[in-house]
Amino acid sequence: MEKLVNTKQKDDSTIDQDKLKFAYYPGCSLNSTAIDFNISVKNLFKALNIHFEEIRDWNCCGTTPAHNVSKEMPIALSARNLFLAKNMGLEEIICPCVSCYCKLSKASILINNKEIKSESEIKTRKEIFEIFQDMGFKTEEEFNFKVYSLVELLYKNKELIRQKFIENKNKNSINSETSTIESEILKDLKPVCYYGCVLLRTEGVTKFDNMENPTSMEEILDTVGIKSRHFRFKTECCGAILSLTHKNIVLKLSKEILDAALEAGANSIVVCCPLCQQNLDLRQSQINKHYKSKYNIPVYYISQILGLAMGLSYKDVMIDRLFVEPKFLKK
Amino acid sequence: MIDQDKKYLNTIRHELITIVEPNIYYCYQCGKCTAGCPLSDVYEYQPNEVIRLIQLNKIASILNANSVYLCASCEICSSRCPQEVDIAAVMNYLRIKSWHYKQFKLSSIANFYGIFLRIVKIFGRSFEPLLILSLNLLNKNFFNDFDIAVKILKKRKIRLMPEFIKKRNEVSKIVKKYL
Questions:
Q1: Do B178 and A237 touch (CB under 8 A)?
Q2: What is the topology classification, in CATH, of domain A10-149?
Q3: Is the pLDDT of residue A62 over 50?
Q4: For strand A21-24 and strand A51-54, is the pairing parallel, antiparallel, or unpaired?
């Protein structure tokens, strides 16, 4: 167990952070139906002193439709975002959305000079570079992109999170022991961590954690004193965007995930993917209707929970925008 | 029905076993892919059956079944295959080919892809209200998700006006080239 001491180290570990600036790629979901994810990530980064700048004039990564109609389209669409980041002088990119992360990661592997490439990859790379040369992008430079998912970045910054948490705790303990909505939510939290399917599984993308039994989210939450329940559905698929065309499949798969969470003794789910969150939170009412069930399980983004632990208000992390609200908000 | 033209089916098979997944003959039907697949109960052919049918040169049967089109690319099959057959890549390749030969069997999904990419082509980004409205119209499922649309509006969690990116022409050029 960690002791609440040693705030001295703070300066040492923030040095790297101060130098480093990330390009931030929100993606279409975070700009609309997952606005709570977007705002909570941004406010969490501010609280943690992680510097970032949104990629100017970014475009959609193409997500599922693009990669199902063409092998090159998702790479070309994502490449534009990478080139735009490069124009801003940034090569370290954060993609909170898991689908965008996979697309940008794959594109970065193809574009980077270092990686070893097959013949067909060299051909695709050349073809895509030609398109961008015509548009006036500089393609002759040395590329060394690194795309981070939110979980990977937070995991790498565990110590920073721990320090900021302790600082905040020491600061607040001077005030009083009054219970706020934020402290009630954190105190009551018995979550399971749900990673979704593709975060750790996509072929060719950096694997920062175990594919079948990842523990990085649990470890991140542990740094702020939250103990997660063991969950056997961590990396099961929620049905993803089949929700638009074959809803019953998604309702069934998502129901199984909610069931498994309850079985694990959890009262909430912590996620890191906007589509998983939508299927589990927004569609929970549809699941209840379809299966005549009474699920009432809040599904938080990991950034929202960490934000609360850093002392942000529930409005700063937009907990009030969840469809299944925690009971403390309903007064 | 799928066009039974042998030439086009042979091209698909040739590319599958030479470029997309040369390991395909290593499959010994252990069934791990099917055991893990979240959609196996709705598939007409299970993932291991799809691989077997390719080995047997029965591409038309695969393209006539729903499996390839419903696959959500969760990639559990590829990640667990003891023979390192990239089943998800095979499914993805078959989807791409059936799209290009205009043989995509599940029209509702084809409509979704078509509308989504056209929206990206116009605006440079996705725009959900237009996507859902057009999809419901095309699929003749007018009140689909009406209940959650109300909830989303109440929570102000959707953009009602599209966002145009500045250099839309660049994005539309890319989409046009590969669509």
A1: no
A2: Glutathione S-transferase Yfyf (Class Pi); Chain A, domain 2 (1.20.1050)
A3: yes
A4: parallel
Rama region for A300: left / alpha / beta (φ>0; ψ in -120 to 50; rest): beta
Task: Please report, as a single letter, which amino acid is at residue A284.
Answer: Q
Question: What ipTM, to 2 d.p.?
Answer: 0.92
Of A71, A237, A242, the CB nearest to B96: A71
> Residues B149, B65: one domain?
no
Amino acid (one-letter) located at B105: K
Minimal Cα distance from B86: which residue of A? Answer: A203
State whether B86 and B118 are in the same domain: no
Q: Using CB atoms, pick whichever of B147, B151, B174 lies closest to residue A73.
A: B174
Pick the CATH number of A165-329 from 1.10.443.10, 3.40.50.1820, 3.40.50.11810, 3.40.50.150: 3.40.50.11810
How many distinct structural domains can be found in chain B?
2
Q: Is A23 left (phi over 0), alpha (psi -120 to 50) or beta?
A: beta
Closest CA to B131 of B145, B114, B116, B141: B116
For residue A300, what is the enclosing H or E element?
strand A299-301
Tell me how close the Cα of A302 comes to any Cα of chain B, in angstroms. 19
A178 versus A304: the higher-pLDDT residue is A304
Report residue A168's pLDDT band, with 50, 70 and 90 as the boundaries.
confident
Would you call A201 and B75 a contact, using CB atoms and an 8 Å cutoff?
A: yes
Q: Which tokens belong to A325?
A: 């609200």
**What is the share, in percent, of chain B residues with pLDDT greater than 70?**
97
Minimum Cα–Cα distance from A70: chain B residue:
B96
Output the six-digit token pair for A22: 């990330």
Nearest chain A residue to B132, by CA: A244
- Report if pTM > 0.80: yes
Domain shared by B58 and B18, yes or no = yes
Compute the nearest-CA separation of A134 from chain B (Å): 10
Contact A76 B113 (CB under 8 A): no
**B111, part of any domain:** yes
**Is B21 part of a structural domain of the chain?**
yes
Which chain B residues touch A234 with a CB distance below 8 Å? Answer: none
Same domain, B112 and B95: no
Tell me, yes or no, whether B14 and B72 share the same domain.
yes
pLDDT for B130-161, tens place per residue? Answer: 999 999 999 888 888 899 999 999 999 988 88
Query: Does A69 sit within 8 Å of B159, measured CB to CB?
Result: no
